[in-house]
Specification:
Blueprint: E1 14-19, E2 24-28, E3 33-36, E4 43-45, E5 53-59, E6 62-67, E7 71-75, E8 83-86, E9 92-98, E10 101-106, E11 111-114, E12 122-125, E13 131-137, E14 140-145, E15 150-153
Antiparallel strand pairs: 1-2, 2-3, 3-4, 5-6, 6-7, 7-8, 9-10, 10-11, 11-12, 13-14, 14-15
Length: about 150
Amino acid sequence: MTWTARTSGTTKTLEAVLHDGARFVAVGDDGTIVASADGANWTALPSVNVPSLQGVAYGAGVLVAAASNGEVLVSNDGGGTWSAWDSGASWLYDVAYGDGIFVVVGADGTVLTSNDGGARWTRRSFGGETLRSVAYGNGRFVAVGMNGRLLTSP
């Protein structure tokens, strides 16, 4: 496969990218957010005041981002404005969406869920090995992390 370098419009490190059905959205250091309809031409969206956005997911018209300061950020307008919720975790790494549920994972075994588009969050696990990534498929969430930690739901 051939790859082409593109100009993202930022020099900040980008940590995660998604496609929401209409465009690509990438997030990264210093709350940087960039978007592209075609993957070739990128424009900056308003940044958020966090050290780094580590993960981003899209579902049911909502963008959710996981931040390195433990905040969960939610946008209902495509990334124009964001609301923040402090999870109490020291670091959040990733977020996934599936079957109407957002799942965020992070430091010290943090697992957070929202089934109402990010309006309210529930701590499902808090303690244990740090979880670095989460994905959804075949009706199940799978989270992985440090020292071989692997969690599944249900």
